[in-house]
Backbone:
């Protein structure tokens, strides 16, 4: 049993009793970082927010508490994490303010332009196809919507090339914020440019 395999089963793609233990550890050690990432994107009270790879559901609960008039959705590929997060957010789920599903980043079960913000913490580095996952996030974000990708040092996510990878998926204004050894990449889905009015365009061409 290698350390990489153990870390993957505990935190990356939690499975079985190791995944259950990993979720417990994450829930009790990453709260400060989670609140920092959420604070960076400026979520409004009525926003629709999606978390990809929600783990034990700590960020989901924080979002549900701080976005009382909004809607929080989540996708995670681990059955253990869906169970833990559902238990942690049982009341908000019953109230219809939170929806958690088993699924993959590269196949998000939501229509185009469904969310104001999408965030993912310590997740992208274990997606089967990160490029496809970023394109899916771009699809479900509203024009002008915000993306936050947070990584603790333990995730071992390289910073080099990450901004370019996000730009290739169609995002703009990508930049990295740091908190000691941890970091978060922020970006935005561009709004469509407005066409010039025909009369104004003709006047401009006439000089």
Residues:
């Amino acid at each position: 049993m290698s350390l990489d395999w153990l870390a993957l089963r505990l935190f990356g793609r939690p499975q079985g009793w190791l995944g259950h233990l990993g979720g417990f550890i994450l829930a009790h050690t990453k709260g400060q970082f989670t609140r920092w990432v959420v604070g960076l994107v400026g979520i409004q009270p009525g926003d629709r927010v999606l978390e990809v790879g929600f783990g034990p559901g700590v960020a989901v609960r924080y979002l549900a508490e701080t976005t009382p008039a909004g809607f929080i959705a989540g996708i995670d590929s681990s059955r253990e994490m869906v169970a833990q997060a559902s238990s942690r957010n049982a009341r908000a789920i019953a109230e219809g303010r939170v929806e958690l599903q088993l699924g993959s980043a590269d196949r998000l079960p939501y229509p185009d332009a469904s969310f104001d913000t999408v965030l993912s913490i310590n997740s992208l580095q274990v997606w089967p196809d990160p490029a496809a996952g970023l394109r899916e996030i771009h699809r479900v974000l509203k024009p002008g919507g915000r993306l936050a990708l947070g990584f603790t040092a333990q995730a071992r996510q390289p910073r080099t090339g990450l901004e370019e990878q996000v730009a290739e998926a169609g995002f703009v204004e990508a930049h990295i914020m740091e908190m000691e050894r941890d970091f978060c990449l922020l970006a935005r889905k561009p709004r469509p440019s407005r066409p010039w009015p025909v009369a104004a365009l003709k006047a401009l061409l006439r000089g």
Notes: Residues 16-29 form the longest helix (14 residues). Strands lie at 48-52, 71-76, 98-102, 115-121, 141-151, 172-179, 182-188.
